[in-house]
Amino acid sequence: MSKEQFRTSLQRYLPEASLDLVYEWLHPYPIKLKIAKPRTSKLGDFKVINKKGPYFISVNGDLNPYAFLITLTHEVAHMYDFIERKTLREAHGAAWKKQYITLLHQLIEQEAFPSDLLPALRKHIARPKAASCSDPNLLNALRGFDEAPSMRIKDLPPGSRFTLTNGRQFELGELRRTRFKCFDPARKKWYLVHGEATVASWEATKS
């Protein structure tokens, strides 16, 4: 894919100032980038079939441009780490963190992020998490760039019935660390759903 084709395909998802740099990260490698439907379990992922590629990266398409960029950077760091170490073991270990921090610094130098996001981003760089949704400070800062304020599972009253952005319906149960135990009446099963997952609609349980 040429740089112009890349820019045309990704300009609605990425900040303008990041497009050329991200293209330089990706174009030398056999990589397939997928814009995924909203997922409650993850924002993005990296997969590989064999050591020579192709490499597969997916990022949720409902993220705002800065959240999309940080998630994509997270996954590109996995790709670079895999290319260097030829393994996915210790996926968020020191080698991955080094790649991730280096890429984020490149984006900051490129002025890809607004100034009011930088304090939270620099704290994130100092102690990178396995996922940006595991860093509440960064996640809250990124939410300020959403087109509209979003309701999260953790904001709901106990016992609420809610629908996620992917259409799945649940009844809210008890909190277990960062995830809530939620009942799916259609499947008649309990699932653990991250408290930061976005809610499309909800209603309180009638007393």
Going across the biggest sheet, name each strand in turn.
Answer: 4-9-5-6-7-8
- Counting DSSP E segments of at least 2 residues, the number of strands comes to 9
* Structural class by sheet pairing and helices: alpha+beta
Give the amount of beta strand, in percent: 15-25%
Using only CA atoms, what is the Rg?
18 Å
Query: What percent of the residues sit in helical stretches (DSSP H or I)?
Result: 25-40%
How many domain regions? 2
Mean pLDDT: 91
The N- to C-terminal Cα distance equals 57 Å
Uncertain runs: none
Architecture overview:
The protein is an alpha+beta fold and 207 residues long. It folds into two domains: 3-143; 151-203. Helices cover 34% and strands 24% of the residues. It has a six-stranded antiparallel sheet with strand order 4-9-5-6-7-8, with no helix packed on it. Helix 3 (65-85) crosses helix 4. The longest helix has 21 residues, at 65-85.
Structure, briefly:
The chain is an alpha+beta fold. Helix content is 34%, strand content 24%. The protein has a six-stranded antiparallel β-sheet, with no helix packed on it. It has a three-stranded mixed β-sheet with strand order 1-3-2, covered by helices on one side.
Tag the structure with descriptive keywords.
globular, single chain, three-stranded mixed beta sheet, 34% helix, six-stranded antiparallel beta sheet, alpha+beta, 207 residues, 2 domains
Task: Please write out the topology.
Elements: H1 3-10, H2 19-26, E1 31-36, E2 44-48, E3 55-60, H3 65-85, H4 94-109, H5 118-126, H6 136-143, E4 151-152, E5 161-164, E6 169-176, E7 179-184, E8 189-194, E9 198-203
Parallel strand pairs: 1-3
Antiparallel strand pairs: 2-3, 4-9, 5-6, 5-9, 6-7, 7-8
